[in-house]
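Progress narrative, Year 2. Work on Metalloregulator ArsR/SmtB family transcription factor from Antiquaquibacter soli advanced from sequence curation to structure prediction during this period.
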Amino acid sequence: MLTVASRLDVMRRLGKAMADPTRSHILLRLLDGPAYPAGLADEFGLTRQNVSNHLACLRDCGIVVAEPEGRQSRYEISDPLLAHALRELVSVVLEIDENASTHEPAVAEECC
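Result:
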């Protein structure tokens, strides 16, 4: 059974991982199915190194796993329950204040 402290840690890790726009895009893409770093880099117009750094962060947080396939690795959401929870989270419609700031950090935040 998870303690309050461990639940807070899970929330903190998920929040930090999703706070970065690039990691959020990667997570949304991985909800559609597994992907390779090179394909994600091409899809998002990023360098492979940048995508690999974000994937390493998500992996270190326990959100994604890497499945080795020869010389490359396929990335996917680490657990079907987590994937389901993320799908449910993004499907929630929130009432947004039209005057609220939508500030996105210019620099990637520190990962988990």
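The radius of gyration is 15 Å. The mean pLDDT is 88.
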